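Thread: Newbie trying to understand structure tokens

Hi all, I'm a second-year student working on a class project, and my supervisor (Dr. K.) asked me to get a predicted structure for one chain before our next meeting. I've only ever worked with sequences, so writing a 3D structure as a token string is new to me. If someone could post the tokens and maybe explain what I'm looking at, I'd be very grateful. Here's the chain:
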Amino acid sequence: MDTNASGTVSRGWRTLTRGDLLRFDRADFIATKVFLGVAVVGAVLFGLTGPILGAVNGAPLQMSYTTDVPGGVTLPRGATQDGKATLKLLLTDATPAERLGQAIPGLLVAAMTIAIAWLILQLLRSTQAQEPFTRRNVRRINTIALIIGLGGMLWQLATAFADNAIYTTDRVPDLGYQSFEATFSPFPLLAMFVIALIGEAFRRGVVLREDVDGLV
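---
Reply by user tm_fold:
Sure, no problem. This is what the structure looks like when written as tokens:
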């Protein structure tokens, strides 16, 4: 193996530059498309098919809830408790409305996954065609950002409504909850801003390309 002054590495019949190690080649495109397909199939199976089959078969409705830990519970050595525990709850007499409420967050995730996978696939196609910097791709990236940011916050809100609808029934032990409680994570909004920055970089690339084309 020889290395010349320009930083080019010669390995037998193949010549690689250092930047080529991170280059997205044909195998990477194929692997990404396969991953997108797996994600879409998983979203359909777990987000769409799962709740429907559960309702048809009358399977117990599974959810989690947080309750107070009573005193006197034996804990492992060196462990301490904060007074709360998250438990799994199986409702054998769930109503259709409760099943629908618990299914909505999964349906949102499935719809978001399918939409994002489709947009990424279009980005991959334009990149393979050597046309990454287009205004259409900028819109695609910004759309992905909005789906992740707003869709993620909507998923959290839908989950809170679905859980609180069951918490208020007599079938769930007293949790010490307020009339309505929800836990929100800022991660979807942070992800939206990061992806929007990528979209802005692409937009600037489009402007630069149009300026260059105008000089030719």
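A couple of things are worth pointing out once you decode it. The first strand starts at residue 2 and ends at 3. Residues 26-57+93-215 form one domain. Feel free to ask follow-ups in this thread.
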